[in-house]
Design goal:
A: alpha/beta; 28% helix; B: 240 residues
């Protein structure tokens, strides 16, 4: 597999991503400067922090434009994790005065407050079951009925019908847990912290999703 | 309910006492974390039990070693005082930060961390004790009393943006004689955020008792795992 570039914008928790790639025996480099993105065909945008803080950092370091150009090339694959997924969209209720990367259409909203039951509290923390409605072999194999670790207070709400999406259920509301749109992949959960099935998913995304969406 | 392995560490050794006192050594925390990860633990919570008391923080190296081969969320607690400590913890493999002592001195640290890293990154580690039928928060791993009455303190930390509460009953810690149901009953209407309970857990029945309280999203086990030499399978009923 070609090496993966991990975008470092200052305070993402890139260490757990690095550990998981080490474990999977996948080569990687940390990308500190936007001009280095083009040396890669596999890129991870990790996420810790608020939407606004991540976007401000990406803008300040000029990663925003570099990422937009990067995904113009079909064979370049981008994986955004957690807030790294959320910033792929247009905007967020978390930080209303700042734009997202506009790579996916939709907005990021605050989870509805439901207090009767822990499972519906905010933040949504814990192992949740993913499910897939689309007949897509890649998603069915890698996400259907897989439990992964979630920790978030906001969720992505696409305003365009994306085909390859997985969900979790939160008080009967469908929450998007991942989205696979051509060469752009976003996952709301922390695959790098989701035991062996999470590590396997990271590997599968970079080794097989590309072939899958080309076919 | 997720099962969390609490690792009490002191100068690189895994230790455990009873009611946070009388520590004995139980081997290497890196090996223990690995053993629990392999048997399916859901999360790891590391507490450096002397960091806060001694005003230092040297558990980052240990954290880094643990995080190397453990692919579940890790929280580091003990001696986190500044945003720089928080940043160091993240850079060495923590996913969340546990704070107790520093928050009781200035609760704004909660909002400062939450503003930068999001609420979900801030776990308030509450070590509480019943004194004359009232509950109070203790700090420095149970060594120092504070004037923080538990329910008022819970209200304050939630207001400041804490994402999760990790509550330990000091009276039950290390005793292996069941959860502190009085404590859980006492706090249940005040807590509005996800909560993990720890103290006294030694078998599946103890966890069953916690299931009556649906505000609890996790259970913390330390003595029950490494003092009794068990793995998570012994406690697991179902994954949720």
């Amino acid at each position: 597999m070609e090496p993966i570039g991990i975008i470092n914008y200052g305070y993402g928790n890139i260490f757990s991503v690095i550990n998981s790639l080490d474990y999977l025996d996948i080569k990687y480099k940390i990308i500190d400067k936007p001009e280095h993105i083009n040396e890669f065909h596999n890129v991870i945008l990790p996420g810790v922090g608020s939407f606004g803080n991540v976007m401000r950092k990406l803008n300040e370091l000029n990663f925003n434009n570099a990422l937009k150009e990067y995904v113009q090339i079909d064979k370049n694959l981008l994986l955004g994790i957690c807030v790294g997924m959320q910033v792929l969209f247009n905007e967020s209720e978390e930080s209303e005065n700042i734009k997202g990367l506009d790579l996916l259409e939709g907005s990021v909203k605050k989870l509805k407050k439901i207090e009767d039951n822990y499972i519906d509290r905010i933040p949504n923390i814990g192992w949740r079951n993913n499910y897939v409605e689309v007949e897509n072999k890649f998603l069915l194999d890698n996400l259907q009925n897989k439990k992964t670790y979630f920790i978030h207070s906001y969720y992505c709400e696409p305003n365009k019908k994306y085909k390859n999406v997985s969900y979790i259920l939160r008080n009967k509301q469908k929450i998007v847990s991942s989205i696979f749109e051509k060469n752009i992949v976003g996952i709301q959960f922390h695959a790098e912290r989701s035991k062996s099935q999470g590590l396997q998913l990271i590997k599968e995304i970079f080794s097989n999703w590309r072939n899958h969406y080309y076919s | 309910m997720r099962i969390i392995n609490r690792l009490d560490v002191k100068e690189g050794s895994l230790i455990k006492g009873i009611q946070l006192e009388g520590w004995r050594k139980y081997g290497d925390p890196v090996e223990e974390a690995q053993r629990q990860y392999k048997s399916g633990i859901d999360e790891i919570f590391i507490v450096d039990v002397v960091a806060s008391l001694y005003g230092r923080n040297n558990s980052f190296e240990l954290l880094k070693k643990i995080a190397k081969n453990v692919f579940v969320p890790i929280t580091l607690s003990g001696g986190i005082r500044t945003l720089e400590d928080v940043s160091n913890a993240f850079w060495n493999g923590a996913d969340k930060i546990g704070i107790n002592s520093s928050a009781t001195k200035n609760s704004n640290i909660i909002s400062e961390i939450a503003d930068r890293y999001g609420s979900q990154a801030v776990v308030v580690n509450l070590e509480v004790k019943r004194i004359n039928n009232e509950w109070f928060v203790l700090i420095e791993n149970g060594r120092t009393h504070t004037d923080k009455e538990l329910l008022l303190w819970i209200e304050e930390i939630q207001q400041k943006g804490a994402g999760e509460i990790y509550i330990t009953s000091i009276d039950k810690d290390g005793t292996l004689n069941g959860p502190d149901l009085d404590l859980i009953e006492y706090v249940k209407n005040s807590i509005k955020i996800p909560t993990v309970y720890g103290g006294g857990i030694s078998c599946q029945d103890d966890i069953t008792k916690l299931r009556d309280f649906n505000f609890l999203s996790g259970v913390s086990i330390s003595s029950g795992l490494y003092k009794l030499d068990k793995t998570v399978d012994f406690f697991r009923q179902e994954v949720d």
